[in-house]
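Budget justification aside, the reviewers requested a transparent look at the raw inputs and outputs of the sequence design task funded under Objective 1. We therefore reproduce one unedited record. The lines immediately below are the structure tokens for a 214-residue chain.
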């Protein structure tokens, strides 16, 4: 798809649900493709851990190992990271800091509204805000949004999931980011156009390949 459409790019990486599939040799085949702009999504997810205590600890250990390996891979190829964090904010933050992920930076995909992660703005990380911002039960994200530095804000979809209101329940589409932008504009008390320009410029700073796009 990236080769067919000029405006489509891709990232290569292993999601924490798929750690048993991690193979750096396969990633090596794609990372130097001119349309590969990031490593991920990778990270930690403690939401669906095994119930057995030994299996749980083994899974967490392997998740951390694969996450760290992908951070080092990103640094080797000088690609930003797309980070997945679910119920693992403390460990994720510590690993990103300890392994100097700021060297390449990245985006916290579907930012989970953890105030504990705001420190990562100082470590070259951006905060991906999607359809959840428009949900009625997104009080925590609504409250924390103004605390995120404006030069670290991004808008994203997580398509086909997390479709913003008023289309919640439908398949998500890139076009629906206008509803996220509108809500962000309302909460930050700036115009829609300012939000769109701000987040577009932030994306171009993070993903250098976007800098030439209009």
């Amino acid at each position: 798809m990236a080769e067919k459409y000029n405006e489509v790019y891709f990232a290569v990486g292993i999601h924490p649900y798929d750690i048993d599939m991690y193979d750096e040799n396969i990633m090596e085949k794609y990372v130097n493709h001119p349309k590969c702009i990031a490593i991920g999504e990778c990270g930690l997810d403690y939401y669906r851990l095994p119930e057995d205590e030994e299996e749980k600890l083994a899974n967490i250990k392997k998740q951390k190992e694969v996450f760290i390996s992908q951070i080092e891979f990103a640094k080797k190829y000088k690609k930003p990271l797309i980070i997945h964090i679910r119920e693992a904010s403390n460990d994720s933050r510590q690993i990103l800091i300890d392994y100097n992920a700021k060297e390449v930076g990245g985006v916290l995909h579907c930012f989970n509204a953890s105030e504990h992660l705001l420190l990562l703005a100082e470590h070259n990380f951006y905060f991906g805000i999607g359809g959840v911002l428009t949900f009625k039960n997104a009080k925590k994200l609504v409250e924390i949004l103004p605390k995120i530095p404006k030069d670290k804000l991004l808008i994203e979809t997580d398509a086909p999931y997390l479709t913003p209101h008023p289309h919640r329940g439908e398949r998500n589409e890139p076009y629906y980011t206008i509803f996220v932008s509108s809500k962000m504009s309302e909460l930050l008390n700036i115009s829609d156009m300012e939000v769109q320009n701000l987040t577009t410029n932030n994306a171009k700073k993070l993903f250098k390949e976007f800098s030439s796009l209009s």
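The beta strands are 10-12, 36-45, 81-86, 106-108, 125-129, 153-155. The chain has a mean pLDDT of 96. Computational costs for records of this kind are itemized in the attached budget.
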